[in-house]
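Hey, weird one. I pasted the Corrinoid adenosyltransferase sequence into the form twice and got a warning about non-standard characters only the second time. First submission, copied straight from the form history:
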Amino acid sequence: MTDDYKAKRHRARQQQLKEQVDQAVAKADQDKGLLLVLTGNGKGKSTAGFGTVTRAVGHGYKAAVVQFIKGDWPCGERNLLQQHGVPFAVMATGFTWDTQDKTADMAAANSVWQQAKVFLTDESIDLVLLDELTYMLSYHYLDLDEVLTCIRQRPAGQHVVVTGRNCHRRLLELADTVSDIQVVKHAFDAGIRAQQGVDW
């Protein structure tokens, strides 16, 4: 088999692939605010969510972030994005196994949710990240029906990104795009501490 023959076969395969991609692109003719869910047991859900926020801000869009189950420790993403005008609402109580106070956690979750609802009705905000929202629903700290209603009734062009494990089935059904991030290997399991600038 000559190099010329291989090159021709490669071009033919790539041309066929291009035609398939072009057809798919031509069929995608709608614009709307998307609901993206990043769930699963693997690392990187919040990181991907913040990557989407950074991308939007880089294009000149306005974004807002709500962080559930976050403590008062430094957050590299918040340090950067607040410098670019991104507002944050942070629960700031830490993980539920740290607080061990369900009543206080529910009050904190509902307080932050009130700010989230403001973001979800603001037509000037193009993208809202609801980081770790799934836990608030699985723990029953927030009312599922209210959360779904607020997401459904948001401004038509507003995008929403939800992160966290064990996403509720009804939220998955509502979503336009769902990524299930699974763990293959994790440094923590080998006794390696979370590293600043990579893990947080």
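That's the output from the first submission. The warning seems to come from a hidden character in my clipboard, not from the data itself. The longest helix spans residues 3-27.
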